[in-house]
Specification:
By secondary structure, the protein is mainly β. The protein has 2 helices and 11 strands; from the N terminus they run αβββββββαββββ. It is globular and about 40 Å long.
Length: about 190
């Protein structure tokens, strides 16, 4: 029994460390595009090659995310346990056209598109481009969409944000991110 508890404890510690950043792999090895948006707050994980900028505009959260990959990139707001209960926005650019999907963390290591759970896609103003081996996506979400599969957010509060990105060329919403993930806290 004691061996089982020690094994479970070590496994939990390993998984927690992995999702907190761990030893990361950068994407295409280039540099993040330095597109600074005036009036936006910013958090950059240079080691992992991920940049997030955000600004509250009335009842809307405006976001720009960039990662060192030509594949998909994602950000998850306010998870409760690893990926659980986070509001994920996943995007990629294919042939110059941005694509976006709204997902909900419906498990510790799982997310599902809101529309498949009975919710709605709650994002707008989607723009995206690939620049020198990096993907940049801009979008807006309501602070409180009223959707059961989106987390209500409040200006002035601090939230845990997790991110991930896929391998170069993986323009989809399903390819596994491997070690390309991390997280930090932001204040809206």
């Amino acid at each position: 029994m004691r061996k089982l508890l020690v094994t479970i404890g070590l496994l939990t510690l390993f998984v927690s460390a992995a999702f907190a950043g761990g030893d990361g792999e950068k994407g295409s090895g280039g540099a993040l595009p330095d597109i600074t948006l005036e009036g936006y707050s910013r958090e950059t994980d240079e080691r992992m090659g991920f940049d997030l900028q955000w600004k509250v505009d009335g009842q809307t959260l405006r976001v720009q995310m960039a990662a060192l990959t030509t594949g998909w990139i994602a950000v998850g707001f306010d998870p409760t346990n690893m990926m659980a209960n986070a509001n994920f926005l996943i995007g990629y650019v294919s042939n110059g056209t941005p694509f976006m999907s709204d997902h909900f963390g419906d498990g510790t290591f799982k997310h599902t598109q809101d529309t498949k759970l009975g919710g709605k896609d709650n994002f707008s103003d989607v723009e995206g481009e690939e620049i020198n081996g990096a993907t940049l996506i801009r979008f807006s979400i309501p602070l409180d969409s009223g959707d059961a599969y989106d987390k209500p957010l409040e200006q002035g509060k601090t939230y845990r944000v997790i991110y991930a990105y896929g391998p170069d060329g993986k323009d989809d919403f399903a390819t596994y991110h491997s070690k390309n993930r991390g997280g930090f806290e932001i204040t809206l």
